[in-house]
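Proteins fold reproducibly. Look at a sample protein:
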Amino acid sequence: MTVSPDSRRYSTSLIFTVFFLALFALHAPLLRLPYFWDEAGYYIPAARDLLLSGSLIPYSAPSNAHPPLVTAFLALAWKLLGFTPLVTRAAMLLIAAFALLGLFRLAQRVANTEVAFASAICTALYPVFFTQSSLAHLDLAAAAFTFWGLLAYVEDRRPAIAIWFSIAVLAKETAILAPLALFTWELAGTKLRDLALAAERRKNKAHGVSRGSDARNDQAPEGRKNPAALLFPIIPLALWYAYHYHRTGFLFGNPEFFRYNVQATLHPLRILLAFGLRLWQLLAYLNLYLLTLATALAMFRKPLDDRQRIPLHVQFAFLSIILAYAFAMAVIGGAVLARYMLPVIPIVIIIGVSTLRRRVRIWRGVVAVVALGFVAALFMNPPYGLSLEDNLAYRDYIQLHQLAETFLEARYPMAKVLTAWPASDELSHSYLGYVTRPVKVVRIEDFTAEQLFAASDLRANFDVALVFSTKCEPSHALFEDWTTWQRWKTEFFGYHRDLPPAAAAQILGGQLVYENHRPGQWIAIIEIARVEEAQTLPNAKMPGILANSGH
């Protein structure tokens, strides 16, 4: 393939700087927030262990066998600039800007500069990408290097393919899906690619399009007979797993991690349901349906002028990666998190934007509406449950926990606190940014009736309970009356209902001393009555309690 005429019009360093400064400005109010959820539970402790001891295998948390590239990058940033949330989040924004740059160059290469800018802007504003841009997780880094690997692939630069995809798998192991999908496409798709190109030539001839004006679309990729570069990333990934096994005795992470993310996910019905959820995340989640619907409607319109589409063989290559991620992430992964799809959601955005530009005269206006829809989804929770990390609900979570745990530390400085993860880590590790010194905790799994009743029998072991919503849910969610779906969620995806603060206080035999709410979320502190005081409190196990809580 030859590079399109405008593909290098703008300086790479200039575009990267613009992307980083824009991300930094948009994230400015979020950059000093303490660490959140999986950050606090694994990634920050793992990077801190590397900073303090030089160990690639974390010791303050059971190893999940994730490759160490991102944690090493964070440890280096802390070594140079200090161990603070600001440094962490700025470092992750650098990776996010690099991801947008790779996406921009990829879209520019397969389409044009207009599509590249529009796709990069939409991606940057899409809620899942936006929130993950400053969080210390692995998926956005894996997406960044995957975009650069895809750029090398469409330009048929085999050494660069091996390098970029190898870096991607060292950011997160699931990045191996992209080169393996392309390898499969290389082997099985040769005939389909030839048929597609033949159909393209016939169509161009019928419409009087000259070969020269459509050479980029019509020209088959060269040098694809040896796809070994796509298999090369297996080597560094295998070396990492061998090292991890040598150090820990476990190949794919600690046994509980492997059970939760692999062994417990292989039920056929769960795979089918999870695949449906992955398609939902690819096509509709958090107002992405606006782009999908606009693209579908645009397909009923004739192409404008001589505007060219993304070459068919490239579209098929993209499709192979999208389907590989959708299926693989339906088979593995205990939590069906949208961030796992970050390497392919922006590809869907590129395809949608390119289609709109090719077929709709006011495509810029349509893309602007889509972008505004993404911004709205950042601030407004949808009428269905979402992961806290998928929009600015994560900011509300952090602020709720900051206020409550500051109150708890000030009023009960020597108390033992009953709570669940991740608040148990927030209280136990002061370096996470919630408390000034470690607080003793008694941990339970969640705030269901079963867990709280069990805890009520051990009231002598704790003085205070910190209870909170472990998910963000609307007051009247879609499908909440569909009992079969509720049963499936509970059986296959670990869904549970947290009891509200008043019911939790009654069960634990305590008194609410603090309560705070944000849209779809809440947190409360319950002071536990001692045995001599409990005589005056309602019996925590009276049947009416669950009836009052709506269960």
Q: What stands out?
A: The beta strands are 416-420, 440-444, 464-468, 510-518, 521-528. Residues 366 and 415 are 56 Å apart (CA to CA). The longest helix spans residues 85-110. The chain has 25 helices and five strands.
